[in-house]
Amino acid sequence: MTLDLLPIGQAARIVAIDWPALVQEEARRLRALGMEEGARVSVAHRGILWWRDPIAVTIGRMTVAVRRAHAAAMEVEAL
User: Fold this and answer.
1) Structural domain span for residue 46
2) InterPro entries, from UniProt (predicted)?
């Protein structure tokens, strides 16, 4: 399952990220925020617009907003 499909509140672990699908600068920012393979994440909220963008993702003690396209590049497994 990808991060964009993870139910709100469900804890998960990132198992793979399709880095080539992301713009290099955006990938660098996501890594700086701790979005790496093995990181524990959960979806806190989804946007209210038609595409449900952005997605608020909790990682560690932070909550960060990521685009749905970025979340779709992250393969997760539910915990």
Assistant:
1) 3-78
2) Fe-transptr_FeoA-like, FeoA, FeoA_core_dom, Transcriptional_repressor_C
